[in-house]
Amino acid sequence: MQFARVAYTLSFTLALVFVVLSGSALASSLCSLGWPSALFDGLTVCTSSIGWAMAMRLSMTYAVYHALLTLLTAGASGDHSVTLFKAFHRRWFFWKNLILAGGAFGSMFIGNTFFSSSYVYISYVGSAVFLVCQMVLLLLLAYRLTIAVSSAKVPALNILYLAVSFGLYGFGLFLKVMNIVWHHSEDTRSVVVCGVSMALDILALVLSLTSGSGAALPPGVWAAVTGVYISQGVYSAVGAAPWAWWLPTLSWTISILLVVTVFLVCMSEMSFDPLFDAGECDLDEMEGLDSEDDDDEDSDTVSYHYFMYHLVMTVASLFMPFSVSGSGTGATQTWDFWVMCGGALLTGLLFSWTLSAPRLFPHRTFGQKSLY
Q1: What was the pLDDT predicted at 298?
Q2: What is the Cβ-side half-sphere exposure of residue 168, based on CA atoms within 13 angstroms?
Q3: Hey, what's the signal peptide range on this chain (predicted)?
Q4: Is the pTM of this model over 0.85?
Q5: Tens digit of pLDDT for each residue in 85-101?
Q6: Given this model, what pLDDT does residue 46 score?
C-alpha cells in the first residue's frame, strides 16, 4: 500500500531526526556538568518534597503507556492460538487501537496539566478522557473474560489469570479515581494510593500477558516495566529542562513518531490479515485459519516485532510526560535535562531499530511468533 509506505518513510526519517536532536542535546548537557556532583544532586533531591509532588502528577500520565501496553500486548500475546480469541482480536485490532491511542494521547497532552492551577478547566477534560480510556480498557478486559469463560478451548488457568487481572485492574482504576478526589500536593495518602495502583497495574499487565497462551513473560518485558518505574523515580526527583526551546521540538517529534508507528502497526495488521481482506468474517470460517496460514506471509512484508514495539512505547512514554510537564529549580535542572535527553536518545534508537530491522534482516521473523 503506497500510503503506508510513505508513512513508513516519514516515520523512519523523523526517528533519525529525533536521534540527532536528542544526541546533540545529551552531548551538550554532558559537557556542561560534572558527573559526580550531578549524581549527588539528583540523589539528594529524591528525598525532597519536589519528588513527592512530581510522583503524584506523573502517576496520572502513566495512563498513556499503560493503556497502549496493556491493550496491544494482550492483543498480541498469544491469544491468536485460540480460534475465538483470534477472531475477536484480529477483527477489532485496528478499531481498539485507533480509539484508545487517540484517547491516551489526548489525556496525555490535556491531562498533564491536571495539577496546574493555570489550566484547571482544561485539565478536568483531560482527566475525564483518562478515566474514559481506563474504563473502556476495563470493559474490553471483561469482554475477553466473558469469551474465555464461554469457550471450551481456553484452559482454566488462563481464565483464572484473566479474572484476577480484571479484578486488579478494576481496583487500580478505583484507586486512581479516589486519588483524584483526595489529591493534595503533599498528601501522603494520595502518594500511597498512587503507588498501590501502579503496583496493581503491573501485576494486571503481567497476568494479562500470560493469560493468552500460558507462555512465560519475556525477560525483556520485565526489564522494560521495571525500568519504567526506576526511571519514574529518577524523573520525579527533578524538574523540567532549563532550555525550553528543546522541549517543543523533542516532544512533538516523539508524538508524531508514536502516532505514525501506531498507524503503521495497524495498517500492517489490516493489509496482510485475511479477515480484513475478506471484509465480513464469520466465526465458523475461522476454523481453518490456523498457524499454517501465518507462515504464508509475503517475504517482503514489514512485520513489526511486538516486543520491540512495546519497549519503544514504554521508553517513549517515559520521556513524553516529563518533557511537557513539571518545573524545577537550582542544580536539579541540568541533571534533569541530562536524564531526559538520555531517555529521548534511547527512544529514538529503539524507533529506528523497530522500523529498520525487518528491512535489514528480511529473512528473520520479527513478529509475535518469535516470542511465543
Answers
A1: 40
A2: 20
A3: 1-27
A4: no
A5: 333 344 444 444 444 44
A6: 33
